[in-house]
Amino acid sequence: MKRIEGKFQLIIGIFFLAYSAYPFLTKASLVPYIFFAPLGIWNIIDGIFQRKSYQNRVYHPGMWIAMVLWGMVIVYIYLFQPAYVKDPVFYIYIIPFVIILALAVYEQKRIRKYQKAIKPYENAIKANPKDTTAWNNKGATIAKFKAYPAAIQCFNKAIELNPKEAAALYNIGVVLMELGNLQEALKYYNIAQDLDPGFKNAKKAGEMILEL
Question: What is the CATH superfamily name and number for domain 128-211?
């Protein structure tokens, strides 16, 4: 649900960013439209954190598109409406642009780090699609980036290939625990321990939940 909400907020955010450029194109006053700018920024940023999935192909291009649109607005002001540069309200446009640029660069670095981290496991899966260890390790790596839906998909794939894959069941429990679903997490910890009685991490995690 959050992924859908995040996508919707990104679309709304980009719309507001584009709409905030309207006064420059019509030579209208800055003030009536200025509030659309921070509203657009807020929707874009909130959409990113709603999705929390660094491999998706929607929010990151949206961030760069928003940044380009914002930059075009600023360039337009300097070239065609220099009188607005003296208006203090104009700097409200400058600050969000810097924020978008910084956030876009930061997210780009995270995506590159993410892609580098999962590449060995993707290569292993490509060589052997039935490698349950590779699927499990890929999921565990993705989970570190808090892309939980994608991580669970990898764990489920490992379990599909080997229903007795205790490590994948344990890792689903870890993700569920991170999401605050303690009872479901405990169920997966117990299943993992039943399959592998010597699985100390599963036992310890289950005991931790029971003590809460």
Answer: Tetratricopeptide repeat domain (1.25.40.10)
pTM above 0.70, yes or no: no
Spans of all domains in the chain: 2-113, 128-211
Residues comprising the chain, all counted = 212
pLDDT in tens, 123-160: 999 999 999 999 999 999 999 988 888 899 999 999 99
Contacts of 210 (CB under 8 A, 6+ apart): 186
Q: What percent of the chain has pLDDT over 90?
A: 40
d(Cα 5, Cα 11) in Å, to the nearest integer?
10
Name, in order, each residue with C-beta under 8 angstroms of 5's C-beta and a sequence gap of 6 or more. Answer: 47, 50
How is residue 63 written in tokens?
A: 């961030």
Question: At residue 145, what is the residue type?
Answer: F
